[in-house]
């Protein structure tokens, strides 16, 4: 008979003593449990002791977290957190360097525990840490332990970052700006500043003023991957906390200093593999840079702005330079206006008498005008060829440059998500973005020439405009999905993907769809489904057994802390625990926490998860909701909360957990995988029927014969 829910069987260790195996009554006060344990070992003053997990993070057991203790947990009897906090508080003030260093080292380790951190901070322990940093000149091991302890204590949010003194901040800044400092201290200092920046406007201004962007660029060129990561994290924190004007100023300065070259050479093409965290920061940097176009994209053209009108006129003058050189007095005002209108019509403006009207639509607004001007000034030959070639065609076959440019700009804004907020978890950046200055404008120059090429291949007329732009969108998205490493490679591939290739791809997809819609094929698919669904279930469980690395994300910032979760090979227990950066696949024995599958009650996703409800007061990000899921176990109050690194991992984990709970797999990935497997299986089964049309209805069964006399009677032969 299983034990009641409020009783767990555990082991308790103590150095130099035989471990105790007890049944912990969860309804019994923790003080009474400790008294019984101490009495067994004949230890006086039970109030001076506490229980903590023997493995993993060694968290102290309190009344608030005791329900997390599982059957089979191993605990250790140790000094209570208040006694330990008092001892270390005295130890870090010791005149003996060895005692002080050891105390700081232990403090850095124990500060991860919220109970200990509360006790230490309540003794004004942070003041002592401030003093060690502010007054000390040490830059070695002692300082590294001090900064580590400070980081862990501040992580619990008991104390506001705004309480830090100017002296302390400037000391941390000095470690970042100094060359002759250990790399571990520089990493911790960068991490502290990164945490500091988003908390208040004042701290942002202090860090921005004291830490030159040139210094961060120096770190990006370092060979130490962790230094690069922390420097990039601080740079991103500064950019996200800045106002639009400050962000533009910072990005302009970084562009002048060739930040893209540093990233392209030292990070993207480094010998070290690119980690998830760095991939996220590169995505954010790309997103922030592209979003600088948002203001122009959302601004309509002002027909009364002389500057904007001059830009518009420059397009006409560049294209029809020889025709525009006729002296002003040669024609009357009316004739000249008529000539301008004719030239604007040749340029492809819908409203040739007032072309500014075409640019009133926002988006793409003035961004389309900027792109056209950039194209005309930086590739004048290609621009003139585009315009003149189309102005000499028959009216119905000319490709309208201006109209195409406006629509293409809108398409590129949608594909590159310009104007959308940065995702907290996305890692999808384009390597070619960091290999090219003026990326958006250069991409436009390639794609507008692609529009003209596709227009000719399709022999399009004005009525086919939307169809052409639809094909161009498909050409761009299909090529971008291949992740080309440079714009030159993008140009080669997108031009190779001509209209005939797009037609072939569409035809293949259509034939595949038609083939799978035949009635006999649909019946075969239904018959194969159960077997293939079982195959998908096995794959999902296998993925859970391999495990996944998850990141902890707070409402304040994207944290560096990692934890790993995996399913036991017998599919009976989920093991999980915190791990260090760089650990790819920790053995199951190293994960101290566990949840029996039998105790799992339900799976929550998205807004239903408790950790997304906790953050609902702050700025909620849509992508976090799409990646969040929780396992409810034992009783409904206790959940294990996840935020998947990608949508793919989210689908595999939610499917796998639903399989363990005996429920249907509901993710979109299940349907995709099922379609792929069904398609492959059906094609294999129909190989012998290639080039034979499958009828919608089965052939009729012939009527039975009038008699069966043609059958041979074997019984007579035997006689």
UniProtKB/TrEMBL annotation:
Residues 307-480 form the ELMO domain. Involved in cytoskeletal rearrangements required for phagocytosis of apoptotic cells and cell motility. Acts in association with DOCK1 and CRK. Was initially proposed to be required in complex with DOCK1 to activate Rac Rho small GTPases. May enhance the guanine nucleotide exchange factor (GEF) activity of DOCK1. InterPro entries: ARM-like (IPR011989), ARM-type_fold (IPR016024), ELMO_ARM (IPR024574), ELMO_dom (IPR006816), ELMO_domain-containing (IPR050868), PH-like_dom_sf (IPR011993), PH_domain (IPR001849). This is ELMO3 protein. GO terms for molecular function: SH3 domain binding. GO terms for biological process: actin filament organization; apoptotic process; cell motility; phagocytosis. Keywords: Apoptosis, Phagocytosis, SH3-binding. The keyword Cell cycle does not apply. Pfam families: ELMO_ARM, ELMO_CED12, PH_12. It comes from Toxostoma redivivum (California thrasher).
């Amino acid at each position: 008979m299983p034990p009641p829910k409020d009783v767990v069987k555990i082991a308790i260790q103590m150095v130099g003593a035989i471990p105790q195996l007890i049944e912990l009554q969860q309804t019994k006060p923790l003080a009474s449990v400790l008294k019984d344990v101490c009495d067994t070992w004949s230890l006086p003053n039970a109030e001076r002791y506490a229980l903590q997990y023997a493995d993993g993070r060694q968290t102290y057991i309190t009344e608030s977290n005791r329900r997390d203790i599982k059957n089979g947990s191993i605990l250790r009897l140790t000094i209570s957190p208040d006694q330990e906090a008092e001892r270390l508080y005295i130890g870090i003030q010791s005149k003996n360097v060895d005692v002080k260093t050891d105390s700081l080292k232990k403090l850095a380790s124990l500060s991860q525990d919220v109970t200990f951190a509360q006790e230490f901070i309540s003794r004004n322990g942070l003041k002592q840490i401030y003093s060690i940093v502010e007054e000390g000149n040490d830059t070695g091991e002692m300082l590294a332990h001090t900064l580590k302890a400070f980081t862990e204590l501040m992580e619990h949010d008991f104390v506001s970052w705004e309480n830090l003194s100017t002296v302390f901040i400037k000391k941390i800044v000095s470690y970042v700006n100094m060359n002759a400092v250990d790399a571990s201290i520089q990493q911790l200092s960068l991490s502290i500043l990164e945490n500091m920046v988003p908390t208040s406007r004042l701290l942002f201004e202090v860090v921005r003023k004291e830490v030159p962007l040139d210094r961060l660029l120096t770190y990006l060129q370092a060979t130490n991957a962790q230094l690069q990561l922390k420097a990039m994290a601080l740079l991103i924190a500064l950019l996200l906390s800045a106002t639009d004007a400050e962000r533009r100023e910072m990005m302009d300065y970084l562009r002048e200093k060739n930040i893209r070259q540093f990233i392209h050479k030292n990070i993207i093409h480094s010998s070290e593999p690119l980690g998830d965290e760095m991939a996220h920061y590169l995505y954010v940097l790309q997103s922030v840079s592209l979003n600088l176009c948002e203001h122009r994209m959302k601004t309509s053209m002002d027909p009364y702005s002389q500057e904007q009108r001059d830009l518009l006129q420059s397009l006409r003058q560049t294209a029809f330079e020889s025709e525009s050189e006729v002296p002003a007095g040669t024609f009357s005002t009316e004739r000249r206006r008529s000539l301008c209108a004719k030239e604007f019509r040749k340029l492809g403006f819908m409203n040739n008498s007032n072309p500014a009207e075409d640019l009133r639509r926002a988006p793409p607004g003035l961004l389309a005008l900027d792109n056209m001007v950039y194209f005309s000034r930086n590739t004048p030959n290609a621009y003139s060829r585009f315009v003149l070639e189309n102005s000499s065609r028959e009216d119905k076959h000319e490709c309208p440059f201006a109209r195409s440019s406006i629509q293409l700009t809108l398409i590129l804004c949608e594909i590159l998500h310009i104007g959308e907020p940065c995702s907290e978890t996305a890692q999808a950046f384009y390597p070619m973005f960091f290999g090219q200055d003026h990326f958006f404008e250069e991409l436009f120059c390639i794609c507008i020439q692609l529009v003209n090429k596709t227009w000719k291949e399709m022999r399009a007329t004005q009525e086919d405009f939307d169809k052409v732009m639809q094909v161009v969108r498909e050409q761009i998205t299909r090529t971008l999905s291949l992740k080309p490493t440079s714009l030159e490679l993008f140009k080669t591939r997108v031009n190779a993907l001509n209209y005939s290739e797009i037609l072939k791809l569409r035809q293949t997809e259509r034939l595949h769809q038609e083939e799978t819609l035949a009635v006999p094929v649909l019946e075969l698919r239904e018959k194969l489904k159960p077997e293939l669904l079982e195959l998908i279930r096995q794959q999902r469980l296998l993925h859970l057994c391999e495990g996944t690395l998850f990141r902890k994300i707070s409402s304040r910032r994207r944290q560096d802390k990692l934890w790993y979760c995996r399913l036991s090979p017998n599919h009976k227990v989920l093991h999980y625990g915190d791990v260090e950066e760089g650990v790819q696949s920790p053995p199951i024995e190293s994960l101290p926490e566990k949840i029996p599958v039998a105790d799992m009650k339900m799976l929550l996703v998205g807004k239903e998860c408790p950790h997304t409800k906790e953050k609902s007061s702050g700025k909620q990000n849509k992508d976090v909701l799409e990646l969040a899921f929780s396992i409810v176990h034992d009783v409904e109050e206790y959940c294990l909360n996840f935020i998947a690194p990608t949508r793919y991992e989210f689908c595999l984990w939610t499917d796998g957990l639903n399989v363990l709970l005996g429920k249907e797999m509901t993710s979109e990935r299940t349907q995709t995988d099922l379609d792929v497997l069904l398609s492959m299986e059906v094609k294999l089964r129909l190989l012998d029927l290639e080039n034979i049309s499958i009828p919608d209805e089965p052939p009729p069964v012939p009527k039975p014969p009038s008699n069966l006399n043609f059958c041979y009677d074997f019984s007579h032969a035997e006689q």
